[in-house]
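Example record

One chain of 228 residues, shown exactly as stored in the release files.
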Amino acid sequence: MTTTRTDNPKVFVSYSWTSPEHEDFVLGLAERLMSDGVHVVLDKWDLKEGHDKYVFMEQMVTDASVAKVLVISDKRYTEKANNREGGVGTESQIISDEVYQKVNQEKFIPIVTQKDEDNNPYLPTILKNRIFIDLSADELFYGEYDKLLRNIYNRPALSKPKLGRPPSYITEDTPQSINTLHTFSSFKDAVAKGKITAKAMAYDFLEDFINSFEAFRITTNLDFHVSN
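Predicted structure tokens for this chain:
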């Protein structure tokens, strides 16, 4: 069962050091999330000298306290992930194991920051068919960032309505006048085709119709008491 988190959810950011500009973009996104109450784990803040970066990555991807892993994917990240290169390759291998072995796959949120010449998103093979957050253009940022934030907090813009009860006419036992339907269909067919049996079939239908009222007979005994 999915629970609603209204505290400070923790997320880990997986990305590639593609360029100084891309690093600045990732840093800016992380800072914005922090200002909106999301506890962001980022290598630039949390990975120190002397730490084992591969152990750090594995811990963040598999840590139960990390609500979401934000996979910020551009062309270089996709290449590294698919070719298992460097830290991104290590992370993608860990993510791959988690994605294919775990039931809860909502933990990994692909965030696309770059598309190819055909406007197809750059995504690693393991995330190719996933619904993603599109931050590939400035004009998309605010709407897509809102979707990301709502996903992290599990507060969607559109919530599934509460399940109600079936209408009473669905659950009530309704008499089925199968014989009446059958004789009426036969009578209608006979009239349409000008059959000489139409008159007899009309009597059959009326007889079945009258008999069908038996199903509506009230059989409950009603006791009336008159007070003096």
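Notes: Strands lie at 10-14, 39-41, 66-73, 108-112, 133-134.
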